[in-house]
């Protein structure tokens, strides 16, 4: 009886994290035109200086399973399932934002 049936199963999990950051700065109207004096600190007024930065962090946790049923080496049925949870934190100049997404694509956003 059991020679006609075969069942194979695979179960696993995955966890991924990512961190990123950036910085930028620019200036116009330098006091001197030579390239030796073209540094961010050598501009004429503070109104001509732009700078900023950002950072981001996210993590992905998922669980998965796969089941395969074979009957009499002729008929095969395979089922796969994957559950993912995403947690993201993004920091920008002027505030922190938190984003939590469920597997169905519903995302909740709140200020930290």
Task: Provide the number of structural domains.
Answer: 1
| Strand order in the largest sheet | 1-2-3-4-5
What fraction of residues sit in β-strands?
Answer: over 45%
How many β-strands, per DSSP? Answer: 5
Query: What ranges have pLDDT less than 50 throughout 5 or more consecutive residues?
Result: 89-103
Major β-sheet annotation: 5 strands, antiparallel
Tell me, rounded to a whole number, the average pLDDT.
Answer: 76
Give the helices and strands as they follow along the chain.
Answer: EEEEE
Which SSEs are present, and which pair or pack?
Layout: E1 5-27, E2 49-71, E3 75-92, E4 95-101, E5 107-111
Antiparallel strand pairs: 1-2, 2-3, 3-4, 4-5
Keywords:
mainly beta; 5-stranded antiparallel sheet; single chain; 112 residues
Task: Please explain how this structure is put together.
The protein has 112 residues and is mostly beta strands. The chain has one domain. Helix content is 0%, strand content 68%. It has a five-stranded antiparallel β-sheet, with no helix packed on it. The radius of gyration is 27 Å and the shape is rod-shaped. The chain starts with a strand and ends with a strand. The model is unreliable at 89-103 (pLDDT under 50).
